[in-house]
Amino acid sequence: MSPRTGRPPVNGESRKEKLNIRLTKEEKDRIDRCAEELRISRTDTIMKGIGLVEDEIGKK
Fold first, then answer.
1. How far apart are CA 17 and CA 29, in angstroms?
2. Contacts of 2-6 spanning 24+ positions with Cβ under 8 A
3. For residues 56 and 2, what is the distance between their CA atoms, to the nearest angstrom?
């Protein structure tokens, strides 16, 4: 039997949901630069950004 393949779950939960968005080239490049600098995926970069927004909302 072959080993398990696919993406590993995050916090015990699989990422099954998809979200398609349209970006300008500049917006995509900004995400890519951040991901490269942090050495994480684009998805994880966006999730970090969402966390920052949630923190900011919580401060109000």
1. 24
2. none
3. 45
- Cβ atoms of 34 and 45 within 8 Å: the answer is yes
Nearest residue to 10 via CA among 37, 47, 53: 47
Taking alpha carbons only, the member of 17, 24, 6 closest to residue 47 is 17
**Residues 14-38 pLDDT 10s:** 888 999 999 999 999 999 999 999 9
pTM: 0.76
What is the arithmetic mean of pLDDT over 38-51? 97
